[in-house]
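Handout, section B. The chain below has 243 residues.
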Amino acid sequence: MLQFVPPNLTEHPLVLAPDEAYRGPAGPLPPSGPPSPSPTSERGALTERVFLGGPVSVPITPEYTAGDPALKAFVEREAGHSTYHLVHLSVSFANGPGLPPLRTASVELRLSSASGVRPPVAWSMSPLRVDEVSQVQQTFHLGPELKFQDVEVALGGYEASRSAARTAPFLLGMRELRDDPGWEFTRTRTMALDGTHRLVLVVRAERGGTAGVTGTVRATTRGNLLRRYRSALPRPLTLSTVL
């Protein structure tokens, strides 16, 4: 197993333009695509709430994997047709008094190649899942005819309790092995969208070509209204490696 130290990433604040505002429960996020044009002013935009670090890439060459013979052999074996790149990025969330809490956020990437013969894909992603885990006390009541009864008091019946862990996803890696990978964050009962989160993926691209990474960051806040925002990654990343 190859261990690596993630590079330091300079974070930049994003200005997320309003994407949609409506009352009612959250629906699915709008489809991926070019972000809506930014307004001429920042009025109504989400500012100083979401920060992006990177993306930066490191080519995975035989020299890079020299500390792991098996991994080095894999890279050398693939060198005839594929190159691999380690892409680092981070996303940070900021909250404050009087600000509507961030409810959801996503980082949606698009991998592309000028050749178009074989599109690059997210060969591997990390993390793939981060869960909130809470302990839940479950109580079962057995009444007449051994029927489970969903009541608080079961007279003359038998009562048994057990403790179980209930999980709720806070972070999900999506669409591994495709050209449109991404991560989705969802506020849970005990985990707010706050602090910095590192995201890493390995991109497999066609040898001899040039691959690119672009993307969109989305967020929603929940106050009296559920509001949606989106912004393009400020600096598209180009991947090019000769092994």
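Note. The radius of gyration is 23 Å. Compare this with the example in section A.
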